[in-house]
Amino acid sequence: MVTNVKIISKNKIYSNNIFEIQKNELMWDQQIRKFDIIKHNGAVSILALENKDVVMIEQYRPSIEDYIMEIPAGTIEKNEKIKECAIRELEEETGYKAKNIFHMISYYSSIGYSTELIHCYVATGIYKNSNRLFTSDEIINIKKIRFKTLLEMIQTNRIKDSKTICAILFYNQLNNQVL
Question: Counting Cβ atoms within 10 Å, is residue 47 exposed (0-12), middle (13-18) or buried (19+)?
């Protein structure tokens, strides 16, 4: 097993307010290896439950040039606390607030090339607080879908978003039941 990894260089080639792209050189076994890394601020996702329904968003994603069904989520802003980000994103994307919000799991989204760590929260006691506080760079339709239906949609490959799949399956496993 290789235990002596040495960082030779880290070169920033691009950055914006969400992420930075680095070209890094590492050495082990006396060989230099090159890696392109995306340094990311991190993100939150929110499984918002209302009885047996889940508040979902159908969002246009330019990266895949299509709409995708997913749970509300967003990037952690600089100096923002993670839980505050979850509360903000839930309201911004859906117009809902939650009486209770708790951390469920954190995981790396694409460990092979990105440092993005997604913190998944569960929101209960949700209520409509306002109209969505959308930003001009998002196209979002809000939908409520039965938890059981979401499980079926995952099994039939109709939900392809990894954070949504992780949240629903992990929550289902924790509760060992279908709502």
Answer: buried
> CA nearest 21: which of 30, 29, 9, 13?
13
Going by C-beta distance under 8 Å and a sequence separation of 6 or more, which residues neighbour residue 14?
A: 20, 21
43-175 homologous superfamily: Nucleoside Triphosphate Pyrophosphohydrolase (3.90.79.10)
Predicted TM-score (pTM) of this structure? 0.91
Secondary-structure percent of the chain, ordered helix, strand, coil, rounded to 5: 20, 50, 30
Distance (Å, whole) CA 85 – CA 176: 28
* Distance of alpha carbon 10 from alpha carbon 25, whole angstroms: 7
Residues 26, 30, 35: CA angle, nearest 5 degrees: 20
The domain spans of the chain are 6-40, 43-175
Per-residue pLDDT of 72-117, as tens digits, reads: 999 999 899 999 999 999 999 999 999 999 999 999 999 999 999 9
